[in-house]
């Protein structure tokens, strides 16, 4: 009777305190912004449920990426799910000693429980070994960007693992003791038949029923006490993800990954960017709560790898810790007072400007994150504050913004330069041929960079050979503003988007052909919000069809070893991985080899997120990192499918002094080289 009363008080006290803590955390989210432009209606429910089953319960990314840490996490996660049954029984028996599962279920459940208790114990042993002996950088923190995390003692992780081990061991002792002191009871004998490990532990009591009961009773208190303590540690630790991660995956983005939320500048309180904790949306806050601190994001980040001050995990933790530190104030203050709270970005603040400007918006971090935490939207949103409110950005960007504003291209070149690549080629203009099927939108990189002229000319030749009805805008073409948007200049982007949409709509053409992943992403995923509702077709897609239909044919040998560098905006953002590889495989003689980091794990070229226009210190260049990865395979050619990649990889090859050994070519150049044609390839 007394023990039931103590248990009831302990249970109610612990659950009450837990709910209070979690309630305060979620109350903060309720005070954060809601205008994230996302669709949370029931129309998205099936997608959300399938994401939750795949990524949260299915632990998809751990299976996909393999590795010992992932396997251990799967074991612990599924173990916890399974052992939820035992926890429920052990809690309930505090009031109803005979509480149990139906007989038909109890046997199979007992067997599964026994298995997972052993598996989780083994996993905890290996995890402790990793934390205490191996100490991998991914756990301890990457230097220099994660110096703060690296300086932590990581005691919390060790304590939590000890908690888990204690729960497993006490669970075993509790069950084993019952098998002895309740022996003869048909229900218990049935359980015993299904619990080989617990049965073996029970044998260690040597039939001493009194000892078994004492140990079992003590184990019950330890088990339940540790769980109630664990529960109350969760909201104060990285293990809060145990509560929030599944919810975070469920509420994650169902919109295209490549779409930055449109800022409504006509709204009553437009958001010019994020700088204070309360500027972030509730979903971005939930991301902060859900981080497991596993470091998979930072391990894939090119900025972290090249020694820049950005590591996505540390960036997120800085934001999270600021929200935690300000929680009391946030809950007390009125909305207008929240607006006056301290900013989180700037000199001497949790996040310095350079962190935000180091990002390539490559999405490698998001692809790696097992709980689907998003980074690009947060980084761009902080940039929006720096550009639009604080007017603080790398000085070289002033030239880029001016070029975009005045000349509609980041180089600031004159409009007539957009036609330079057409010299010697009879390329039709839409102005002269309004009834063409495709508008070939060349884009700034393809039209204005002399090295990319070879790509653009190659594609034009393929189109002509395939008798495709197409035309270009030529000097009337305008930049789509992608660079401005990723650099945080949302207002400039919107102005440019509206101008280009008006221009293209005035032609009446509905099929837009592009050979640039940035143009493709923006025009496909972002322009519909600005009235650009066209079919945007990748050049690779169209050329594949021309080949399949026999409208172009391969004939010339391209006897070279090729490594293909995936562009982030075709690959990770839009899932285009196989198409360029298939095209290359059709070129006679071409031998394709994969880089170690390829497809979803491929490293950015260094140009994404407007970084093309930001100076990099010589020893921190992302293109040097990527070219180094390519050279490991000793290729003759590094193939690209993005004008910015071509420039960055080309510069990297030149910087390393290997331009005599390795060529950098766009996929279209290689296809044109292999194509049967009377004209010589470019
Ligand atoms: S988007 Fe790329 S560069 Fe930016 S934080 Fe993520 S991995 Fe790093
Ligand atoms: S953001 Fe995701 S990948 Fe990065 S540390 Fe947190 S949980 Fe791990």
Provide a concise account of the structure shown:
55% of the residues lie in helices and 4% in strands. It has 682 residues and is mainly alpha-helical. Helix 31 links the parallel strand 7 and strand 8.
Written overview of the protein:
The structure is a single chain. By secondary structure, the protein is mainly alpha-helical. It is about 55% helix and about 5% strand. The protein is built from 32 helices and 8 strands. The protein has a 4-stranded parallel β-sheet. It has a 4-stranded parallel β-sheet with strand order 6-5-7-8, with helices on both faces. Helix 4 packs across helix 5 (about 105-135), helix 8 (about 155-180) packs across helix 10 and helix 13 crosses helix 16 (about 310-325). The mean pLDDT is about 95. The structure holds iron/sulfur cluster (SF4) (2 copies). One iron/sulfur cluster binds near residues 293, 316, 368 and 369.
């Amino acid at each position: 009777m007394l023990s039931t009363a103590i248990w009831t008080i302990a249970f109610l006290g612990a659950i009450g305190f837990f709910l209070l803590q979690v309630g305060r955390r979620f109350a903060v989210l309720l005070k954060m912004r809601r205008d994230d432009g996302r669709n949370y209606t029931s129309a998205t429910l099936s997608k959300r449920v399938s994401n939750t089953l795949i990524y949260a319960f299915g632990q998809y990314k751990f299976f996909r990426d393999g590795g010992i840490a992932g396997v251990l996490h799967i074991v612990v996660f599924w173990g916890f799910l399974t052992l939820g049954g035992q926890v429920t029984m052990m809690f309930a028996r505090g009031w109803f000693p005979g509480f149990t599962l139906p007989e038909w279920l109890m046997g199979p459940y007992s067997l599964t429980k026994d298995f997972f208790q052993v598996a989780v114990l083994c996993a905890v042993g290996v995890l402790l070994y990793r934390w205490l002996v191996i100490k991998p950088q991914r756990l301890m923190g990457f230097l220099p960007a994660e110096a703060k995390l690296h300086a932590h003692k990581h005691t919390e992780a060790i304590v939590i693992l000890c908690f888990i081990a204690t729960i497993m061991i006490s669970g075993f002792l509790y069950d084993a003791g019952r098998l002895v002191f309740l022996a003869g009871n048909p229900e218990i004998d049935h359980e015993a038949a299904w619990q080989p490990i617990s049965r073996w532990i029970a044998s260690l009591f040597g039939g001493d029923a009194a000892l078994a009961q004492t140990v079992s009773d003590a184990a019950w208190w330890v088990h339940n006490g540790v769980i109630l303590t664990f529960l109350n540690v969760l909201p104060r630790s990285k293990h809060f993800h145990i509560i929030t991660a599944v919810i975070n995956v469920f509420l994650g983005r169902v919109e295209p990954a490549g779409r930055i939320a449109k800022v409504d500048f006509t709204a009553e309180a437009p958001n010019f960017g994020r700088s204070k904790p309360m500027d972030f949306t509730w979903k971005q806050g939930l991301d902060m709560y859900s981080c497991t601190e596993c470091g998979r994001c930072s391990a894939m980040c090119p900025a972290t790898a090249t020694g820049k001050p950005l590591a996505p995990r540390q960036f997120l933790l800085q934001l999270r810790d600021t929200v935690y530190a300000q929680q009391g104030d946030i809950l007390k203050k009125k909305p207008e007072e929240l607006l006056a709270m301290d900013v989180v970005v700037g000199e001497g603040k949790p996040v310095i400007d350079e962190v935000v400007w180091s990002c390539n918006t490559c999405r490698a971090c998001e692809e790696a994150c097992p709980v689907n935490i998003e980074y690009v939207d947060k980084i761009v949103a902080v940039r929006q504050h720096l550009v639009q409110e604080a007017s603080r950005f790398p000085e070289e960007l002033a030239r880029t913004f001016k070029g975009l504003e005045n000349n509609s291209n980041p180089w600031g070149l004159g409009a007539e330069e957009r036609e330079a690549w057409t010299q010697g080629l009879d390329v039709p203009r839409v102005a002269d041929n309004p009834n063409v099927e495709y508008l070939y939108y060349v884009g700034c990189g393809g039209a204005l960079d002399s090295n990319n002229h070879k790509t653009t000319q190659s594609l034009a030749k393929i189109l002509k050979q395939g008798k495709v009805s197409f035309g270009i805008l030529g000097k009337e073409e305008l930049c789509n503003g992608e660079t401005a948007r990723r650099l945080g200049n949302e207002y400039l982007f919107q102005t440019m988007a509206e101008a280009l949409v008006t221009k293209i709509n005035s032609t009446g053409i509905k099929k837009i052909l592009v050979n640039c992943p940035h143009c493709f992403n923006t025009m496909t995923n972002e322009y519909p919000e600005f009235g650009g509702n066209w079919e945007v077709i990748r050049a690779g897609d169209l050329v594949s069809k021309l080949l399949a239909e026999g409208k172009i044919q391969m004939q010339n040998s391209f006897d070279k070893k090729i490594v293909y560098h995936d562009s982030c905006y075709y690959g990770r953002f839009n899932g285009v991985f196989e198409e360029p590889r298939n095209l290359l495989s059709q070129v006679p003689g071409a031998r394709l080899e994969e880089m170690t980091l390829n497809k979803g794990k491929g490293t950015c070229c260094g140009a994404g997120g407007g970084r093309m226009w930001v100076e990099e210190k010589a020893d921190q260049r992302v293109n040097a990192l990527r070219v180094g990865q390519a050279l490991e395979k000793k290729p003759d050619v590094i193939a690209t499918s993005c004008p910015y990649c071509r420039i960055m990889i080309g510069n990297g090859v030149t910087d390393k002094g290997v331009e005599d050994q390795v060529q950098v070519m766009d996929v279209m150049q290689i296809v044109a080289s292999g194509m049967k044609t009377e004209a010589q390839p470019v």
